[in-house]
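User: Hi! Is it possible to get a structure for several chains at once, not just one? Here's what I have:
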Amino acid sequence: MLVFDQLKRSDPQLQLLTIMLCAGLAVLFAGLWWVQIVNAGSYQESLEVQAFRSVRLPAVRGKILDRTGVVLADNHPSYNINLYLEELSRAFKKEYTRSRPRSVVTNDLPFWKDWLGYTTVTTQYTRLKEEAAQAVTRNARYRVASGVVSQVADLLQTTLTLDYTNFYRHYETRLSLPYPVVSNLSLLHLARFTEQPLTALGLELEVQPIRVYPYGTTAAHVLGYLRKDDSSAEGEEAFFWYRMPDYRGLVGIEGGYDSQLRGRAGAKSVQVNNLGYRQTENIWSAVEPGQNVVLTLDLKIQQAAEASVRKLLGPDAHAAVVVMDVESGDLLTLASSPSTDPNNFIRGFSLAERERWHDETLGVQKNRATAEQYQAGSIFKTIVALAALENGLNPQEIYRVAENPAIPTKGIIYVGRQAFHDTVPPGDYDLRRAIVRSSNAYFITNGLRPGVFERVVELGRRLHLAERIGLPLMQDAAGHFPKPDQVRNWPAGNTANICIGQGVMDVTPLQMAVMAGALANGGKVLWPRLVDRLEAPEATSLEAPTVFPKNRIRDELGVSERNLNIVREAMLAETEDMVEGTGKKVHVDGLRICGKTGTAERKEQGVKRNTTWFISFAPYEKPRYAVVVMVENGDSGGRTCAPIAQDVYLALQNRELLVAPKRLAATPR
Amino acid sequence: MNPIALNESAPRLDRLQITAILGLMIVGVAFIFSATMVNESAASLPFIKQLWFRQIVWYGVGVSLAVTLCLVDYHTLARWSFVAYWGTIFLLLAVPIFGTMRGGARRWFDLGFFSLQPSEFAKLAFILALAHFLSRPVDELRSPLNFWKAMGLLGLPFVLVLKEPDLGSALVFIPSGFAMMLVAGVPRRYLLRLIGIVGVMASLILVDVLFAPPRWQIKLEDYQRQRLLVYFGQDFAPPNATPDEKKRAHRLQQEKSYQGKQALISVGSGGFTGKGWRQGDQTAGGFLPPGAAHTDFIFSVIAEEKGFVGSVMVLTLYAVLLFTGLRMAGQARDRLGKLLAAGVVTLLFSHVFINIGMNIRLMPVTGIPLPLLSYGGSSVIGSLIAMGLLQNVHIYRRGY
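Assistant: Yes, the chains can be modeled jointly so their relative placement is included. Here is the combined structure:
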């Protein structure tokens, strides 16, 4: 071997030299081992830190559709013109060289250069202090970039200026990302740009989806709204250098199904050079677009309900309308007024809109159909009537309402020493007339009969009053209703109050829709269904959609069909009795509607506040839809709510004609 | 030329060494290509202007000069050694006046097509002259006068190169001179004295730079001071600096330690097998300074792209070069040949050790090229002439 040959030779000095060389090479070998094998990982990390920038890429948000496929929450492309700064880096340098200050100097040349005829006067760059040089560089960069921007402005035939601070904020913090020159191009500008794209200058057109709610305030509470939020979702990479704008749903379907709608954000890494300019890009985690949410809502009915509220009561009316399919539990309408346009959360609020949003008395943020609880009032008499019938009440039995001595035209009843006023005139009432005229005295008397109230409480339990329904809206109230052990020893006055739907009970309009549905469908207490299915965004996807089952029965009322029919007929009479019916304003030609009005009175700090109701279902012959209308501070259930229900039924009737012209809703079988 | 020698069975040239030189030249062209063809503007130059091609030209010039030198017996060359020595000394003296300024140092003559770096040739002339001087009978080396004459031969170019300023190149003179004196048989006490002087001076300078209060510091060039501070990880700012000064000193420190840090990241991130030829992120991203990647930091490029395997291969090629050189010293016909070979080998080794060492932070960053690999006309031609001298010693070795 080469080395040993030399060590064997009897030349001590050369041997020493050889050993020293060997030692030196061994040191280098060990050093390389240390750096490249032992510590390779940490240097790789340093390399990544200085040369790679991770960027979070939000996925396209899923759409929200109504049951017929109309898109209620959509994504529209927004076109931006981006400037890739790395393309300009050479121009920056050139402009810097051009703009560096120069001065003419007279050199004191050495004698021999003088002889050779060198000139002593030359123009040369002035030496600059570091700060001054930096200022020149910055100005040069800005000039180049704003030159490009003005070229864009010329092309678009508009005026654009490059904001110095904005540009440098971007340059210093987000250099590896393109600079947005124009955001949200108009179609005219888009056309002008695409006709002659200035890609040579490092400009590129970028398409970005933005959330749009094409129907504005329609179903706004159900849809919910978004807030800007680009933080990482659970199970996602937590650290990113940069995040592209993203949104998170707060309430409504946008909130309740946020993770499904959001999809999965992707990530790319941008490799940068030593100056921070972008070199290459690599998407290491592809985005998975969010799923579409298909609702059970029917846009036509929803619009009709909202339009009716607006037309009859104005845009600031405090009202809710619920329409439910009594067989499947599908919610066709879930309207709450007043509401705000969810587009405001994307595009920004006007000042007036912002004030409206925060106005407590207006309560724009409340979903009155599901999240607010009200006194039920007379509409609960339907359940009291059922309980009394189940307890053996003869519906033909006459009860005489006593005259109120103070107001001779009105009735009155005393429970113990407590007086309950009646709105009906004194006279003879059977069950039918008591429902049609909504007599308090009749139902208090019958409710206080032994065994009836226990049944009322039991029916309330089976209707799951005071329990949340749990729609995925993040807006849900439970309400109140007495429990069996609470009522055992309580005063008769409380019982009397419950019998007319007041006192210690509160309900939501949605719960009342379920109740009306149970009266209509033979006693089945259904789970209302708002979301039909979650499906892949592309129609071609092989992935099976997640379908939520229809017709989920939560409970049964457990009452006889005979008694249900008695109540239904009384409710039919309420809308069809042209003399006495409180709900006659709901009348729709060719459709027989069972209804019950209600007005719950409540004193709040001395001010009388009404909750007016109209619950109904139709057609009488074979009920399909339950319609519940609630208006705060309305005049009365019959006068305020029934006309809205009428508009809804007209829309439903229209829909029946459109969808299944041969099976008219009103046609008797 | 000895016509009888041509009939000998053994080859006259050392083929193993020539293979190693060829290997290094191929690696050099390949990685200069990789280090310079990083963007379109570099790739769009005509190939005549591209550095890998120019390096081939330098190789060609160097090889022809080396071959020419081999035609003349090294004894004849040695007779002219003092002309060469004083010629380079004259050039070194001229550099401060006529040389061009680059990066704060005056080391080059700009000849238009070629920038001549006299210190590269001064090293060779020094080795030739010292070998000639030391090849006198051993007894004469015992006299102190001759020792101090030898020291003078070493000291003159050392000081001139140091004044350029080029600390790295200047320091390379010391191990070569020392090795030649050792091999020549200069008495041990003189050698120890030499080691002592160098050691004491070096440590004095270090202590002064690192620890002395500013007023007591000897006048070193700023960049030299900074490099030493960076190497020893010392703070730039004096202890009583204002926050503003500290900030500035900190920025300066980052700037000054940048090259070494980036070289280390390049070498380290290469890992075992590297990222592949032309796949180096550090080179492509410009983190390795584009002006230095193909010259002083060519080893970082190789280490990043070919990993530990590649760096060890380069190291092996140099080892072959060095040990064949030592073998030549052992087989030399006379003391002149032996001294010449030992001097060239040590010079080569010093370059390799300092250059690779600075890439892995064993050594402070200095402007020492990696022989035969780094781009640069003077360095390549000088290295090839040195190889020619070695082969020359080999050609006229014992038994021929």
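Residues 299-338+370-659 of chain A form a domain with the Beta-lactamase fold (CATH 3.40.710.10). Chain A touches chain B at residues 2-3, 5-6, 9, 11, 13-14, 16-18, 21, 24-25, 27-29, 31-37, 39-40, 42-44, 46-47, 50-51, 90, 110, 271-275, 279 (CB under 8 Å).

User: Great, thank you!
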